[in-house]
């Protein structure tokens, strides 16, 4: 069986109708690939459409300020992608006069572009014969060939990349790369794949050895750390509140948040009052407070779990830099805080 031809044939009959498949424009392809990193298609599609409409060219994106980009990105998470997207747009617009690199090697020089994204753009836009290897490709190859080398090991990444490169259809790398990713996304799914309707049923090692659920193999990552966040939601009598911009490196870099008290563990209301009494924003002030959510909201990130409570602080006036409450939705905030803002209905 010719693996490449069969998967491409399957793709021609089963591919989803997606806007970035109707263009060879490297700006649009690049946007879609950055958005779809760590994001499923159904979630990423409206963000892609919003970015294309809001920033129709790389020049428009480059000219935007970071706050505008982050605000449009809000809800996708992994905000370093948005910051890298913006940095690369400036590089392409200002250093390359708006012309995207047209090969894998040069695409790798763009901030936020690694092996997978460079391979995708190079093959989709410029028909370069360089194989993509993402989670879907790892899964398809691991199951079809019965490979149990961990996909998140250096040995595994090299082996799967080499195998993918051997299999790629050099005459039509764009179609082949999209085919194997689509096959992994909608046919050879992580859970409950439809093996009985699979074109590779007879030759798939995992299916014939009853190892579909065991492949691919992945080394377990370190246990996520727990953090305890207490956000202070100030509401003054004149309709003001406080949002602070996060500084320094981190997942929420340059995003806005309510003033934060981070504690080493969960705290009682009595302990919270002690923290509050010592807070610089409240010295000499009369205020009342209440706990918005008794049960902590658990926000799970890849490397840490945030146990979060929102404390409502009603105060006559604020002796700090404030914003009108009615403009709170203009600021780029983490989705955790964005959800609270919508739920609380200021």
TrEMBL record:
It catalyses: Hydrolyzes free adenine bases from 7,8-dihydro-8-oxoguanine:adenine mismatched double-stranded DNA, leaving an apurinic site. It is an enzyme of class 3 (hydrolase). GO terms for biological process: base-excision repair; mismatch repair. The keyword Iron-sulfur applies. Its cofactor is [4Fe-4S] cluster. Binds 1 [4Fe-4S] cluster. It comes from the Bacteria. InterPro entries: A/G_AdeGlyc_MutY, DNA_glycosylase, HhH-GPD_domain, HhH_base_excis_C, HhH_motif, MIG/MutY, MutY_C, NUDIX_hydrolase-like_dom_sf. Keywords: 4Fe-4S, DNA damage, DNA repair, Glycosidase, Hydrolase, Iron, Iron-sulfur, Metal-binding. GO terms for molecular function: 4 iron, 4 sulfur cluster binding; 8-oxo-7,8-dihydroguanine DNA N-glycosylase activity; adenine/guanine mispair binding; metal ion binding; oxidized purine DNA binding; purine-specific mismatch base pair DNA N-glycosylase activity. Pfam families: HHH, HhH-GPD, NUDIX_4. Its EC number is 3.2.2.31. Residues 35-186 form the HhH-GPD domain. Belongs to the Nth/MutY family. Adenine glycosylase active on G-A mispairs. MutY also corrects error-prone DNA synthesis past GO lesions which are due to the oxidatively damaged form of guanine: 7,8-dihydro-8-oxoguanine (8-oxo-dGTP). This is Adenine DNA glycosylase. It comes from Pseudotamlana carrageenivorans.
